[in-house]
């Protein structure tokens, strides 16, 4: 045993787990670290987060915690922040790299579960499931009617996928069972073999919006994708079409969408993510043809456990422990490790 290894065992590095996670994952982390945990699951303000990180070598965060230059300035010992999410638009990667702070995420472990939920949201939206359930619970149902809650067929229709990464591909593969035509738009076209495996055809964004009966958004958020769907895009969609946002808030202009739904410019929308969440645009709460869920696409027991475990793997490795010491499996900014 080297002297440095012995010293590390005597004085454990301090870490912050910024939101509540599974207790057994905390126990695993405690084998290596002095853990400050947030069992109350409060969302820290930027100032509070900065204060709590002041003496920390690492942290596990969620999308709720913004890691930017201001926070980093108050955390001189910080070496890694492990996001328990596949998305990382809460990270200022440039600032983290400049500060020598490794950034990690949890890709792949949630692909299939998120794709499952995308279909749940699509089906609920197309077939007016939540709208009709609310009506039933309110005591209105007294007879069957031929025109009661008529929705849109999913089978045999055209599915448009915007963002054809791993989750988008998993959604497209599921469409085969519904005998759907799948079109997609992406930053770059997939190779022929992947297109064939998904039975999907590449089209430009305008063509997708004009032709798809159901549009599902699965692209990462960035400045370039902000308001990918706004008033202009909604205007070219079919009046019978549905829109599902499974990706990130801000990809859709929620205010414009609320107007389009109220005016029946499109038939319905299903949203798992929102601009400024957990706040939801008040006009979206007023329209009956919106299915709204609280960012739960990855919320199965197995998947959330997988995300927490992978975040812990990243943190443990980044701080020099375990079989992958020094090589976190999901490093987003390799240059930070070299700094």
From TrEMBL:
GO MF entry, a single one: hydroxypyruvate reductase [NAD(P)H] activity
Database matches in PROSITE patterns: D_2_HYDROXYACID_DH_1
Record flagged with keyword Cell inner membrane: no
Domain D-isomer specific 2-hydroxyacid dehydrogenase NAD-binding: 120-297
Enzyme class: oxidoreductase
Keywords: NAD, Oxidoreductase, Pyruvate
Highest taxon of the lineage: Bacteria
Pfam hit, one: 2-Hacid_dh_C
Recorded coiled-coil stretches: none
InterPro entries: D-isomer_2-hydroxyacid_DH, D-isomer_2_OHA_DH_cat_dom, D-isomer_DH_CS1, D-isomer_DH_NAD-bd, NAD(P)-bd_dom_sf
EC number(s) from the headed UniProt entry: 1.1.1.79
Domain D-isomer specific 2-hydroxyacid dehydrogenase catalytic: 15-319
Entry's Gene Ontology cellular component terms: cytosol
Keyword rRNA-binding: no
CDD domains hit by this protein: GDH (cd05301)
Family: Belongs to the D-isomer specific 2-hydroxyacid dehydrogenase family.
Protein name from the UniProt record: Glyoxylate/hydroxypyruvate reductase B
Natural source organism: Pandoraea eparura
Gene name of the record: ghrB_1
């Amino acid at each position: 045993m080297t002297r440095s290894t012995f010293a590390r065992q005597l004085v454990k590095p301090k870490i912050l787990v910024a939101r509540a996670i599974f207790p057994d994952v905390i126990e695993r982390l405690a084998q290596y670290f002095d853990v400050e945990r947030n069992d109350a699951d409060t969302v820290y303000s930027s100032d509070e987060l900065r204060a709590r990180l002041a003496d920390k070598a690492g942290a596990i965060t969620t999308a709720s915690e913004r890691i930017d230059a201001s926070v980093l300035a108050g955390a001189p010992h910080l070496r890694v922040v492990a996001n328990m999410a596949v998305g990382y638009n809460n990270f200022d990667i440039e600032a983290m790299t400049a500060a020598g702070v490794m950034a990690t995420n949890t890709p792949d472990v949630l692909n299939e579960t998120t794709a499952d939920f995308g279909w749940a949201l699509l089906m609920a939206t197309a077939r007016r499931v939540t709208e009709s359930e609310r009506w039933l619970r309110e005591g209105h149902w007294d007879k069957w009617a031929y025109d009661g809650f008529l929705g849109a067929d999913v089978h045999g229709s055209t599915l448009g996928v915007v963002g054809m990464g791993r989750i988008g591909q998993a959604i497209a593969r599921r469409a085969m069972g519904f005998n759907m035509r799948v079109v997609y738009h992406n930053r770059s076209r997939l190779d022929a073999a992947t297109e064939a495996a998904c039975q999907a055809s590449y089209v430009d964004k305008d063509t997708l919006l004009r032709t798809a009966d159901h549009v599902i958004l699965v692209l990462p958020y960035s400045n370039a994708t902000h308001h990918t769907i706004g008033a202009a895009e909604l205007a070219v969609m079919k009046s019978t079409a549905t829109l599902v946002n499974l990706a990130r808030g801000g990809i859709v202009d929620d205010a414009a969408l609320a107007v389009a739904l109220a005016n029946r410019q499109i038939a319905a929308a299903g949203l798992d993510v929102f601009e400024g969440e957990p706040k939801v645009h008040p006009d979206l709460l007023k329209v009956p043809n919106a299915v709204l869920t609280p960012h739960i696409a990855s919320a199965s027991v197995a998947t959330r456990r997988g995300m927490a475990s992978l975040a812990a793997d990243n943190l443990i490795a980044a701080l020099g422990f375990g079989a992958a010491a020094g090589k976190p499996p999901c490093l987003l900014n390799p240059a930070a490790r070299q700094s």
